[in-house]
Amino acid sequence: MGSPHTLQQWEALPPSGEGALEQRARSLETEVATSRQLEAELRAKVEQLNRALEAERVERAHKEILFHVTDATSRAGSLEEIYNAALEALGVGLGVTRASVLLFDADGVIRFKAWRGLSEKYRAAVEGHSPWKPDEKNPSPVLVSDVREDPGLRGYLLVFEEERIGALAFFPLFSGGLLLGKFMLYYPGPHTFTEAETRLAQGIAHQVAFAVERGLAQQERERILGIVSHDLKNPLSAVSVAATTLLRQDIDPNTAKSVRRIASGASRMERLIAQLLQFAQARHGGGIAIARKPVDLVEVVSRIVEELETAYPEKTIALSGAARCSGSWDGDRLAEAFSNLIGNAVQHGAGSAVRVAIAAADAEVAVEIHNGGPAIPPGLMPKLFDPYRRGGQPRIGPEGVGLGLFISREIVRAHGGNIDVKSDEAAGTTFTVRLPRVAV
Known about the structure:
Layout: H1 7-12, H2 18-75, H3 79-94, E1 98-104, E2 110-116, H4 120-126, E3 142-144, H5 157-163, E4 167-175, E5 178-187, H6 195-247, H7 253-284, E6 293-296, H8 297-311, E7 316-321, E8 326-329, H9 331-348, E9 350-360, E10 364-372, E11 389-390, E12 393-394, H10 404-414, E13 418-424, E14 428-436
Parallel strand pairs: 7-9
Antiparallel strand pairs: 1-2, 1-5, 3-4, 4-5, 6-8, 9-10, 10-14, 11-12, 13-14
Helix pairs in contact: 2-3, 2-6, 3-6, 6-7, 7-10, 8-9, 9-10
């Protein structure tokens, strides 16, 4: 059998009767129809491939967003940082400019904890509304594509209109068998929620709920720790006074030795309790309180250096720089901060020398504390000032509870200053404290 003729070949063939022409026409029509079918099938396959590629791109982007929110919430040092990480992920992943996080309080009322793009009037009008009860065991997302068509929200239509909200979504924050609260998404007009959007929002909700549960538990532990520390302060002080009184009396050497141990242990416990109380105040009391008055910072630092040289006679602490440096500061608080920082350099630096340099400018003072030794690993630097850590590692042991650097940073912050750290193998480690001379 010969090969099919092209259109030009058909036209070039001589006529051979009416039947032959009809046959040629039908054959040509068949070829055109086949060609059109193949073209349609090809277009369908291309469209299918494009949809698959787009779905893969969206899925990859959503996985990246979930990774970032998981990483951010795991690094967060406070509930506020967790809320901000959630709102940022929602904005990037779902393209919303308005979102909020709400939690149930002790009375079972759901209240705003963080938000973006919502007025105070709106928050006051809707606070307390939740599609689930606090004891709900299997809460599911509630998606409202058009607020005008949801019977349960009719009482809020005027509020929605004033706030320019046309669609919204409720996603439960559920972890450990408990409904902690919800986060919400707001759209200016009606919005059809896609499966990909819903899946991403649920993934973010899962990570945020886990982080919030952890943060709330930590917050409660710290609250109890502050209460217990406060309650222990007075009886421990009585033990310390009693031991000091006994040592002033004429007692036998063995008894005196035991009493000195009691006095030493009580003194150490008092220092730890003082740190725990300051920690509780810094975390839940709006920061460490300070009482400003005229202070010579050189005098404060010199006193700390003398005390540490007495405690560590094998170490040399070289103090240099300004002879005097006056400012409006809380001298007692700064003495505690520099005792922690210089003491940390003495205890953990290699070699026998620690350098402390004070540089005074018109507006601020800079104090550098340097020690030699191994560099602080880069991965530990972000956690260096975290509570319950020493050198970036979790720490609760005989030397303390790992609050020294945290408290030092909070004291400096309370003065409007900051602490920077640089560390490498060649140059060693340098903590630089910058303090404004007056309140800012």
